[in-house]
Amino acid sequence: MIPAMARPRPPYLHRETTRHGRSVWYVRVDRRKRIRLRGEYGSPEFQAAYNAAIAGEPAPTAAKFNTQTLGWLIELYRESRAWAKLSHATRCQREGILRAITETAGTASIARIDRAVVERGIDRRHGHPNAQRHFLQTMRGLFEWAVKAAHAEHDPTFGLKATRPATDGHHVWTEDECAAFEARWPRGTRERLAFDLLLFTGLRRGDAVRLGLPHVKNGIATIRTEKTGQVVTIPILPPLQASIDAGPVGELTYICGKRGRPMKKESFGNWFREACETAGVPGSAHGLRKCGATRAANNGATEAQLEAMFGWSRGSSEAAVYTRHADRARLAKQGAVMLLTERDKNIYSRTSPQGAGSKPENDMKTTPKNFDGGPGRTRTSNQAVMSR
Fold first, then answer.
1. What's the confidence (pLDDT) of residue 319?
2. Together in a domain, 139 and 280
3. Considering 296, 315, 331, which residue would you say is the last residue of a domain?
4. Which of 156, 243, 345, 376 is 20 to 30 A from residue 302's alpha carbon, by CA?
5. Does residue 374 lie within any of the structural domains?
6. pTM of the model
């Protein structure tokens, strides 16, 4: 039951009744965005929220966990600079893990979280290498910050490693698969525009859906990547410009939905995968990024160039993977001829074997260097006869 309201009612306070018959209270000062007040009307919690709203300050929140508990530590971590410096995608990924940890072990003392506890958390995710790795990375980020902030005495994740999945990751598009997609989705379709943008910029899908005309000046696109925070500068190559000109594009972003609105990376990933299935190719958006890196490496791009193009950190292992594979392929082609015997190699020689119509090498005469064939060249007696 709602207590009797004060008379007169406090200023800027408004009440609304929901479709379920509950009363909710809002504060709206002048033209500010209205703020909903939590708590029962007349309670100290309600009064504190009202005072904060009038002052334009965030509403105070009641502490859910006692100090020096894991839940208390996680709440502080979410408000720290270390958390804010993480990319949006990383925060979303780790938020789900932290929420699960809070529900199951939020009341546990920080001092009780040791190496064995973390190892048990890893073991519970047995059979899911990616989940194990993400859990360990989340706990490591939490306790590395906690130790620096003097909230914890030690880092229980120190020295622990999670097994990486034995896989090459996303399927790398082949040139035949690229051709099949282009044949199914010609220029003038949203699918082809997305394909060319991913291939000819090398952007991750989260950055590709944000790229648009505001990022481009004099044919050069500049954008800060979502995952690493690196600024990449990308020329708009002619094939991509042709797709942009053919459209359809959005007002702020090149990639857009049916109504011309920007797309979220999650919905874009699902939509693009369906386009791949329609084209009969097993590709994905990230696999197309890897195809672009493979092309660039095979054409002689250096590690520094790949890092600049794809937004990888300086000295990262990603660029080295592509250049190493390209070098191995190139060296293999050059070294393949060494598998042949001396007799087999003669098959590829441009000089005709000795026999009818030829003379022994000792019988061949030469002319001085400055003959009419040019400096540094020689001609045989046969050539001399033909020139007479």
1. 62
2. no
3. 331
4. 243
5. no
6. 0.54
